[in-house]
């Protein structure tokens, strides 16, 4: 009986592993191979060694894209987690104590649904929606109101100094709802006795948040930071739709590596695009590994 389970396990996993190898592992390996070639999509790829990588490190757009990723890597997790934690705390233990029991604010169940609504929308729909919000004329939701009030429009996506920050705002708006629900689920698993005992001892909401909620949510925060970091690398759809032009404009002010990959594929530079893809792959893996390593700490247990 003991030996009979291994054929069953192998048979059960054979199909999923084969599909994963064919549709995930094989394309990744092929991308690595193409990154050492010059290929325009027809004929046979021409082996050129590390020339694509040499060109990449000499490409100003590559370094500009990395700068933008650095901004997104710092700001997107920080802002999203801060806002999400604040709302999740209010929805779970931010209300008044009733009969000694900590509760969320009034209407917390309704607010959870409202916050989660952006997750239902496709990324392309969100991008088109904010094209209207940021439109730099009378039809724009923000600039249109400003112009009717006799004020100068802001030109969110046209001004190179604020275009990336405008897209960052969309990324935060899109992500907050999911992490409010995620942190709410984590907080709901914390025994209310801990909050109630701290409240009886005179702990303020500030103390409850920093001395109880944050330590007990550390593993969830760690996962959220990794996911948001990956989202900062994988923001092609929003950037491509909201940017001016097809090169992360204006003047490359919003370009990211995924946009550069797409732009080079449009001009049939598949070898160089593959090299950029390999760089993006290693940047993402390195970020995730470093984040998990640096943020690792002993689990806080409670019963």
From TrEMBL:
<feature type="transmembrane region" description="Helical">
    <location>
        <begin position="70"/>
        <end position="93"/>
    </location>
</feature>
<dbReference type="Pfam" id="PF00528">
    <property type="entry name" value="BPD_transp_1"/>
</dbReference>
<dbReference type="InterPro" id="IPR051393">
    <property type="entry name" value="ABC_transporter_permease"/>
</dbReference>
<keyword id="KW-1133">Transmembrane helix</keyword>
<feature type="transmembrane region" description="Helical">
    <location>
        <begin position="162"/>
        <end position="182"/>
    </location>
</feature>
<feature type="transmembrane region" description="Helical">
    <location>
        <begin position="216"/>
        <end position="239"/>
    </location>
</feature>
<keyword id="KW-1003">Cell membrane</keyword>
<dbReference type="InterPro" id="IPR000515">
    <property type="entry name" value="MetI-like"/>
</dbReference>
<protein>
    <submittedName>
        <fullName>Sugar ABC transporter permease</fullName>
    </submittedName>
</protein>
<feature type="transmembrane region" description="Helical">
    <location>
        <begin position="113"/>
        <end position="134"/>
    </location>
</feature>
<comment type="similarity">
    <text>Belongs to the binding-protein-dependent transport system permease family.</text>
</comment>
<keyword id="KW-0812">Transmembrane</keyword>
<keyword id="KW-0813">Transport</keyword>
<feature type="domain" description="ABC transmembrane type-1">
    <location>
        <begin position="66"/>
        <end position="291"/>
    </location>
</feature>
<feature type="transmembrane region" description="Helical">
    <location>
        <begin position="7"/>
        <end position="29"/>
    </location>
</feature>
<dbReference type="InterPro" id="IPR035906">
    <property type="entry name" value="MetI-like_sf"/>
</dbReference>
<keyword id="KW-0472">Membrane</keyword>
<feature type="transmembrane region" description="Helical">
    <location>
        <begin position="270"/>
        <end position="292"/>
    </location>
</feature>
């Amino acid at each position: 009986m003991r030996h009979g389970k291994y054929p069953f396990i192998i048979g059960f996993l054979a199909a999923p592993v084969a599909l994963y190898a064919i549709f995930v592992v094989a394309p990744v390996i092929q991308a690595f191979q193409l990154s050492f070639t010059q290929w325009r999509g027809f004929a046979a790829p021409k082996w050129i060694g590390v020339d694509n990588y040499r060109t990449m490190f000499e490409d100003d757009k590559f370094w500009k894209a990395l700068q933008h990723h650095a901004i997104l890597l710092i700001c997107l997790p920080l802002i999203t987690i801060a806002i999400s934690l604040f709302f999740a705390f209010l929805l779970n233990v931010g209300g008044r104590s009733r009969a000694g029991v900590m509760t969320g604010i009034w209407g917390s169940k309704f607010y959870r649904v409202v916050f989660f609504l952006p997750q239902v929308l496709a990324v392309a729909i969100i991008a088109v929606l904010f094209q209207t919000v940021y439109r730099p004329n009378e039809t724009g939701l923000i600039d249109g109101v400003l112009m009717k009030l006799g004020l100068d429009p802001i030109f969110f996506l046209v001004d190179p100094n604020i275009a990336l920050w405008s897209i960052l705002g969309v990324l935060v708006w899109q992500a907050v709802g999911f992490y409010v629900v995620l942190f709410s689920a984590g907080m709901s698993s914390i025994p209310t006795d801990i909050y109630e005992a701290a409240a009886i001892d005179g702990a303020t909401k500030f103390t409850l948040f920093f001395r109880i909620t944050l330590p007990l949510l550390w593993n969830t925060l760690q996962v959220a930071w990794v996911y948001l970091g990956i989202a900062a690398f994988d923001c092609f759809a929003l950037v491509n739709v909201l940017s001016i032009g097809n090169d992360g404009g204006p003047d490359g002010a919003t370009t990211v590596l995924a946009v550069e990959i797409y732009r080079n594929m449009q001009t049939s530079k598949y070898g160089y695009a593959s090299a950029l893809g390999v760089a993006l792959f290693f940047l993402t893996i390195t970020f995730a590994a470093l984040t998990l390593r640096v943020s690792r700490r002993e689990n806080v247990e409670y019963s």
